[in-house]
Write a structure and sequence with these properties.
Layout lengths: L1 E6 L7 H14 L4 E6 L1 H4 L6 H18 L7 E4 L5 H10 L4 H5 L2 H8 L6 H16 L4 E4 L4 H18 L7 E4 L28 H9 L18 H9 L2 H13 L4 H27 L2 H30 L3
Parallel strand pairs: 1-2, 2-3, 4-5
Helix pairs in contact: 3-12, 4-7, 4-13, 7-8, 9-12, 10-12
Bound molecules: adenosine-5'-diphosphate and tryptophan.
Length: about 325
């Protein structure tokens, strides 16, 4: 099965991204044909500075490679290195009803958050549909927030096939197994947009500062505490073994253990969990040529497939 997903280079990736999405992307590459890309054209819709866009793109590449993307098997590229996708997006735009995009929740959310409603932001789902359809993807693993975009992709594909003949593969969404939303250090959903993240590859000093500032209530040390209402416990769940988690559950409920102790252990476990990946990332950072080479190879493989689909599409619509 061909599995495709994209991630926007819109900031430093955090442990919410890892446990909520990347870990599962990486798992899926073992038994499938993995197609993963860095959605830099999509990131452009939120108007980053050129410097930031460049930096974030390389950071996402380094993160994925360090975390175990298998470059021999999986195709990994930067979206803008396969410009056929934007040409295809225009063709799809011309059969996409305005109403379909006007109903889009993610567009409305982003505008509510204060993003400038530029045309790229409005047309975002059409570009996403082009990403998915140009590679004949079967399965698209995404978070629940992206479900509507996959439905829109299917609607566009059905409209295209109905108008020009059965050419495009209808993808299925694969909503990532719902790992509870990872809370940020302020207790809201961890997100690049809220400045509340714990980065996957932050320095130990930075990690310590973040973990120690995770918001808790003010229950005194000696009193019992509810683990299910605690942000530190929610984070411990991601990295502690089952046995250790059961011990912490008991310590919380019995009283006599402070949040400080739980935070200290959380810090140790986070450092331990990501240590091998950190070492790998440091090695990769010293070798930027290798990273560029991986992206170039990925782009060449992606280009070949995209060109083939685009040729068929152009013929079908009367452009060739
Ligand atoms: P952010 O909110 O940080 O900008 P994105 O929207 O780019 O994150 O999300 C990329 C992927 O990571 C999505 O599949 C999303 O579901 C997942 N994800 C992001 N934040 C969290 C979180 N706090 N908990 C679980 N999964 C998350
Ligand atoms: N919109 C996705 C997100 O914000 C990123 C993305 C772009 C994507 N193109 C895609 C995801 C194609 C899956 C398939 O998370």
């Amino acid at each position: 099965m061909r599995v495709l997903s994209g991630i926007q280079p819109s900031g430093k990736l955090h442990i919410g991204n890892f446990f909520g999405a990347m870990r599962q992307h990486l798992k899926l590459q073992d038994d499938n044909e993995g197609f993963y890309f860095i959605a830099d054209y999509h990131a452009l819709t939120s108007s980053p500075t050129p410097q930031k866009l460049r930096e974030n793109t390389i950071d996402v590449a380094l993160d994925y490679l360090a975390l175990g993307l298998n470059t021999k098997k999986t195709v990994f590229w930067r979206q803008s290195d396969v410009p056929q996708v934007t040409e295809f997006a225009w063709i799809l735009s011309c059969i996409t009803p305005m109403g379909l995009l006007q109903r889009c929740v993610s567009f409305k959310d982003k505008v509510t958050q204060g993003l400038l409603p530029n045309h790229g932001l409005f047309a975002y789902p059409v570009l996403q549909a082009a990403d998915i359809l140009i590679f004949n993807s079967d399965l698209v693993p995404v978070g629940a927030d992206q479900k509507q975009h996959i439905e829109i992709t299917r609607d566009i594909a059905i409209k295209f096939n109905g108008t020009y003949g059965e050419l495009l593969t209808l993808p299925k969404d694969h909503i990532l197994e719902s790992v509870a939303i990872v809370p940020g250090i302020d207790g809201r959903k961890m997100s690049k947009s809220y400045d509340n993240t714990i980065g996957i590859f932050e320095s130990e000093k930075q990690l310590k500062k973040k973990v120690m500032s995770v918001v808790t209530d003010s229950t005194p040390v000696e009193e019992p505490k509810d683990p299910d209402k605690c942000n530190v416990f929610a984070l411990l769940k991601l990295v502690a073994s089952k046995d250790e988690l059961a011990e912490w559950d008991a310590k919380y409920r019995n009283g006599g253990t402070g949040y400080g102790a739980a935070k200290k252990r959380l810090l140790e476990l986070l450092i331990e969990y990501f240590a091998p990946y950190r070492a790998k990332r440091e090695e990769l950072e010293k070798n930027p040529d290798y990273v560029h080479k991986v992206l170039e190879d990925g782009a060449a493989r992606a280009n070949a497939i995209a060109s083939e689909t685009l040729k068929k599409v152009k013929k079908a619509v009367g452009l060739l």
